[in-house]
Amino acid sequence: MTLWSRLRCWLAEILHRSRTESEMDAELRFHMEAYAEDLLRSGVPRQDALRRARMEFGGIEQTKEQCREARGVDWIDDIAKDFRHALRQLRLSLGFTLAVTLTLALGIGATTAIFTLVEAVLLKSLPVSDPAQLYRLGKDPDCCVRLGFSRPTEYAIVSNELYEYLRANTKDFEELAAFQAGGTFLGVRPAHSASPAETYFGEFVSGNYFSMFGLNAYAGRVLSVADDTPAAPPSAVMSYRVWKRIYGLDPSVIGSVFSINDKPFTIVGVAPPDFYGDTLSNVPSDFYLPLAMEPFVKDDGSLLKLSSAGWLNVIGRIRPGTNVASTEAQMRVELQQWLRSHWGEMTASERLDLAKQTLNLGPGGAGITTMRQQYGDWLHILMLVSSFVLLIVCANVANLLLMRGMERRQQTSLRIALGARPTRLVRQALTESILLSLIGGAVGLVVAFLSTRMILHFAFDTTTQVPISAAPSLPVLLFAFGVSLITGMIFGIGPAWLATRVDPIEALRGANRATRDAGSLPRKALVILQAALSVVLLSASGLLLQTLRNLQHENFGFDRNYRTVIHIDPVLAGYKPTQLPALYSGIHDSLTSLAGVASVSFALYSPMSGDGWSEAIYVEGKPEPGPGADAGSGWTRVSPGFFEAIGNSILRGRAFDDHDSDRSRHVALINEAFARKFFNNEDPLGKHFGKARGSAGDYEIVGVAKDARYADFDFTKPPGAFFFLPQSQSSGYSDTNAASTELRSHYLHDIVVRMQPGAALAVEQVRRALASVAPNLPVGRIQSLDQQVENNFSQQNLIAQLTSLFGILALVLASIGIYGITSYNVARRTNEIGVRMTLGADRMHVVRLVLRGAFLQVVLGLTLGIPLAIAGGRLLGSQLYQVPAGDPAAPAIAVGLLAFCALVASLVPAQRAASFDPVKCLRTE
Amino acid sequence: MDEQLNLLQGTLDMLILKAVSLGPLHGYGVLLRIQQISKSRLEIQQGSLYPALYRLEHQGWITSEWGESENNRKAKYYRLTVAGKRKFQSEAEKWNRMADVIAGILRTTTEEL
């Protein structure tokens, strides 16, 4: 028979199962009847004839079975039978099934939830065509504005002029596009609407941005190269998210005019629904504007024409078959050529650094990978943690199945005695466990979906839309399915194999007469493993919780109580610099009039708000800092009364007051770190410094403030040098970069409101107060200073919470495991206990007997777990804050917790054993 | 009737092929025919007949179709395929050769050693 005809036969047999069965039945019956007739004809009475025919034919079912086997399709039949048998068994012991399914669902669900995040953040590419062909400039993500011709490590952020130069000269790229690094907030409202502008996130992009990604508009059209010219009518593309959520897919939006930062733009189209821009972030872009429109929108703050102002990321589609390394080398040459063409404008240190300037090409398929960097480490830790939990779950379920296998020994021996093949029995047991785990996996998917939603809710700002979907994608589904299958096979094989290692005679004689615990080694090993893993997880969560608490209670140099921070953006409302003082005093008066407000003050940015400005410092009377010297300082601009408002004490000198005006002497305040860094032992009061070359005499130091933390990273280092400038004063610079920075620094973004103790500030009140003075000023977040600081630890918070959750889960699972094992042991040794009690053992003795069995394993597990926990603590090292690496507190607490739970878990069955009626015990088998 | 010989395993297939080669038969008919041509010296276990038939069909040496029996009842008839014919001939050859060899061994006397 050829393969083809054989396959056809198979298919026919599979599809026409019932027909072939009835045919076989008919054939065999025909045979018997024909034989019976022959017997009849030879004189045998009818009754006897039929009986003889049947007897001499033999077992009809057996024959049928053999025929089926001969046909070669019996394996399908067998599998179906195994399946049905397994289902029946599971339904019979519903409690057991439920317990196992739930345990599995928790383990598989947790792992799948973490994997969903891992896949979205670490593995997925941008939703654009052929992301493998995309390459971006910069090995590491860099943001957001860099002034000058020198870069410390690599050129990842470029100016518009450099971008155009690269685009014109690098033929290896089919398309090279640029987009604003980090994006920008925009104030947007429909042109004809009277309501104030809403704040959205957007970015400036080059004309070929969408065509480079290979994207077409969902509605209308996308930006084209024609839109990216200064003379073109201002056009913008809206995101699908905004079009759907805010404007309800209204088609009239397309082609209508919107006011963006008070400038008219025509919305020409809507981006595709799943496109979230070039960066996976929790603030996705909602508006895309052409690069050429940047001066139109930003006015004096424009960076487009500044050849040394880097503010663009570059990403492009490379020609297929190109050698990326050679393209990179060529682009490095182009960079050098471009830099040399600007030799005349460079500073001395920039000229010295010129030869070192380089750029790198990296794969751009994932876009800008800031989130990958931020969350990468954490996600890896979480994956490790959740696989621990999964292991514990598997151990638990394996134990439960082992126990049940032991219980069924009599049944198994009987079946082997009746002629069942061991392989068939193993296959049946395996089918059962795989079925269990598939069901557990299905429920686990639901658990995963819900927990992913919960994690995303906590990890990201609830007001913004997160571009990560909690719904499982195909890779995640395959992962969950794979994990379920593997766990099923792992914990199914053990019991299945052990079940067949029974001596039928032994079991039939009457099980449970022996006190030797067969098959106990794997069970004991599993309990020990569970205990050890639980200790590790609990200890890790203890360390992380401690870190979190240390971070939260750290004194950052300012007072967090009774302070509210209001974020505004005068840039978006189109305020001119001359209008700002009136705006601020208006807001000040309006807010101070509210009940409970003690004082109101303004700052360019408040402490730990996520923003940070820094400059190179030139001290009068001291030599200029050489190239590569660390002479930088952070700074901010504040209004009078700021230090009192924020609770930052002035150690020496004075704060800003109303006497400091633009006509009086230009002053500045510094912090202790600044004094230490630039003035060492000298008294800084009265000294002068500046923030641009040649302006070293600009500011006179009138006060020294206590060190306070403004930047939000690297808590292990003390706060760096910082200085403060007053809102009322402004310096002139000949350098365009410096002048632009000075101008932009007067647009203060944060209002700090100090409340009287016990008073609360209502958000609605604030908004009304602000609207009464400045109706079209977009008001961003309003939150307490405490909350603002907390936001900096949202990641640590999340990780600590998740690890604790996993730790508790591990503890619960381990306790359940110990309880299960102990009660099984009690049940198994009922007879023995009865004998002992009859011979004179009292209740305490029985309790001790049971406990001793359980505790040996627990103690072993704990001793195994402690060094692992300490090692784990060292592994976490970098993520911990002010927690010594070998700190014994967390492992000790973990051990204590587990010991306590183990005691409770084994005490319950022990008590039950102690209350046995000895006579009943002896009667049970 | 002579003492009935027990059937060697594996030869059943050959006998079925021979029986069917003489004309299409249903299962019971195959049984009867083998009894007939062996002049009742051979008895086949009824239970092992049908698995063998199904096996031979699965391997492609015989093929089956439903038809009407002598007393107008539905029965499944088996007949030899072309490949089956070839298989039968080669099996028969092998059997005869083996029979020769064994017969030769059995004939050996002490003188020929």
Give an overview in words.
The complex is a heterodimer of chains A (925) and B (113). Chain A has 925 residues and is an alpha+beta fold. Chain A is built from 29 helices and 25 strands. In chain A, strands 16, 17, 18, 19, 20, 21, 22 and 23 form an 8-stranded mixed sheet that branches. Chain A has a 6-stranded mixed β-barrel with strand order 4-5-10-7-9-8. The longest helix of chain A is centred in the middle third of the chain and has 38 residues. The termini of chain B are far apart. The longest helix of chain B is centred in the last third of the chain and has 26 residues. The radius of gyration of chain B is 17 Å and the shape is elongated. Chain B has a 3-stranded antiparallel sheet with strand order 1-3-2. In chain B, strand 2 and strand 3 form a beta hairpin. At the A-B interface, helix 1, helix 2 and helix 4 of A face helix 2, helix 3 and strand 3 of B.
Mean pLDDT of chain B: 84
- Sheet with most strands of chain A: 8 strands, mixed
Shape, per Cα inertia axes of chain B:
elongated
What kind of assembly state do the chains in view correspond to?
heterodimer
Shape of chain A: elongated
Order of helices and strands of chain B: HEHHEEH
Computed CA radius of gyration of chain A, to the nearest angstrom: 38 Å
Structural class of chain A: alpha+beta
Biggest interface in this structure?
A: A-B, 25 and 22 residues
Spatial separation of the terminal alpha carbons of chain B: 38 Å
- Fraction of residues in H or I helices of chain B: 40-55%
State the end-to-end CA separation of chain A: 57 Å
Helix content of chain A: 40-55%
Secondary structural class of chain B: alpha+beta
Radius of gyration of chain B: 17 Å
Tally of DSSP helical segments of chain B = 4
Biggest sheet of chain B, in brief? 3 strands, antiparallel
Low-confidence stretches of chain A: none
- Number of helical segments of chain A? 29
Spatial order of the strands forming the largest sheet of chain B? 1-3-2
